[in-house]
Amino acid sequence: MNWRNLVAHDLRCGLLRKRYLAAVGIAAVQCAQCTILLNGYARMGLLPRPGGTWMDYLLFMYMGNPAVKIEGIQNAFNVPIWWLLMVGGCLYLNLDYLLYDLSNSGLQIIVRCETKRKWYFSKCVWNLAATALFFLISSLTALAFAVFTGGSPSLMASQPFIRGVFLGTAEEDFTLSLGQGLLVAVLAPYCTVAALSILEMTLNLAVKPVFSFLICLVVMMVSVYFQTPFALGNGAAVCRSGVFLSDGVDPWASIAVAGGVILLCGAAGCFFFHYSDILGREE
Amino acid sequence: MRIVIDHVTKTIKGAVILDDVSLTLRSGTVYGLQGVNGSGKTMLMRLIAGLIRPTSGKVTIDGKILGKDLDFPGSMGLLIENPAFLDGHTGLKNLELLAQIKGEIGLPQIKETLREVGLKPEDPRKFKKYSLGMKQRLGIAAALMEKPDLILLDEPTNALDDRGVARICALIRRERERGALIVLACHDASILEGLADEIYKISEGKIEKRAAR
After folding, report:
1. Residue ranges of domains in chain B
2. How far is CA A21 from CA A204, A267, B140, in A?
3. C-alpha span between B178 and B175 (Å, rounded)
4. Other Cβ atoms within 10 Å of B37 Cβ, number
5. Structure ipTM over 0.85, yes or no
6. Is the pLDDT of residue A75 over 80?
7. In sequence order, which ranges of B50-196 are alpha helices (DSSP H)?
8. Angle between helix A81-93 and helix A116-148 axes, rounded to 10 deg
9. What is the pLDDT of residues B121-156, one digit of tens each?
10. Nearest 5 degrees, angle CA B81-CA B84-CA B88?
11. In this predicted structure, what is the pLDDT of residue A123?
12. pTM of the prediction?
């Protein structure tokens, strides 16, 4: 069996799907809100001109919200809807490829693999690539917003944006370096979303896709209330990062947890799939 | 190749799909499976293909236990249920992509197989534009193109006209002469009678030998 061609098949069939264009729309919703915010800063004189940098938009997309401390029924269900849309959007787009492939040419492919594990491992590679594609499309959308709204394609965050968005959390003289920006706005969210996506695919082996999606949404919702790297969504919530907060979540710890989840789910999926029956649609 | 199905029972969600099935299958033979819808024909094929695991009993292929020593029979072509391929590619491209996985055959063999099943390799139409009969022929071509030792065909004559049926029957006979082990499920008794060396009737997951040619 040619391993490279197996992965190429999954990348070709799994990524070249029109559904991933929806990432533009999802990112655009976030970027539009960011533009409104930046224009407000410009009107207040905090920014010399409307528009922010590419990094401003990247930070905003996965900003999230501070951990919710339940003080009563009023704030018990403080759902960060836009953050859920961003992370959940990627999970939704990645939702059904495994079963989609099996109901198309995947059955012909899998019997040409020597083992089920190889086929499943190829799906894990696809999953990581699909999440990367979502991030690429959303990042390019952010770049387009930065350029076409009068901002700049710089990967350095603007100081008023940092102070404004992370008001009360970032120090007055805080400057976000390029490395820190890429870490909290791209790498940590990518690893976190990739981990959730692999978890979703693993759950797909046991339950219907819609339920695996809902379970992952629940995992994300848990992280809304707990500011710890072990609550998986925290790595994709920029405003909780230890880069900005003294008691924030260390992005490297989030990445480590996400990496652990990816490895664990990949191994569990391979094991479980090995013992699973491959049945037809009506069976 | 020698496949031994040894007292296999398969239950799914409490329902017995295959009930204490025992069979021995050998190369160079066409085995026919006959039974009504839901009798267990397709499940038996999935079992032999390694796609499902027995609840009890075992399947061995040349002495190796399927699901333990090996996941799938090493050299197998199959057509189970409706043939499914990538909608946006031509038949030739679909088979080319499939063949690349094993890397055993090249374009000339793929084109030859397409002609043998009655499809034109140069046909520019995408799979989604294929008629049901063309899809079926492509599915059969995918099963045969790598000259596998084991061929599993579930209702291969579905959607085919008389000429198409005759062509596929001739191909199955040729594959038997080559030494392939062929398992054929077909609702049309006359096709099975004409092709199969041994016919087994399946009813409610139980198997009974009906006739030998």
Report:
1. 1-75+149-161+169-213, 83-147
2. 23, 30, 35
3. 5
4. 7
5. yes
6. no
7. 91-102, 107-117, 132-144, 162-178, 189-195
8. 140
9. 999 999 999 999 999 999 999 999 999 999 999 999
10. 165
11. 92
12. 0.87
Is residue A44 less than 8 Å (CB to CB) from chain B? Answer: no
Q: Which of A4, A7, A107, A108 to mutate to test the interface with B (most CBs of B within 10 A)?
A: A108
| Paired tokens of A157 | 């965050």
The residue whose two tokens read 């009974």 is B208
Residue with tokens 């990042």: A139
The sheet with strand B15-26 has its strands ordered as: B15-26, B2-12, B56-61, B64-65
Confidence band for A96, pLDDT divided at 50, 70 and 90: confident
Measured between beta carbons, the chain B residues lying within 8 angstroms of A105 are 84-86, 94, 97-98
Contact assignment for A109 to B101 by CB distance below 8 Å: yes
Label residue A81 exposed, middle or buried (CB < 10 Å: 0-12, 13-18, 19+): exposed
**3-class DSSP state of B52:** coil
What are the structural domain ranges in chain A? 3-282
Return d(Cα A51, Cα A36) in angstroms, integer: 9
Q: Say what the pLDDT of residue A220 is.
A: 92
Q: Please, which pLDDT band fits residue B188 given cuts at 50, 70 and 90?
A: confident
Options 3.20.20.210, 3.20.20.70, 3.40.50.300, 3.30.750.44; CATH for B1-75+149-161+169-213 is 3.40.50.300
* Residue A83 tokens, joined: 């953050």
Distances, alpha carbon B76 to alpha carbons A109, A143, B144, in Å? 11, 50, 9
At A283, the pLDDT band (50, 70, 90 cuts) reads low
Q: How much is the pLDDT for B183?
A: 96
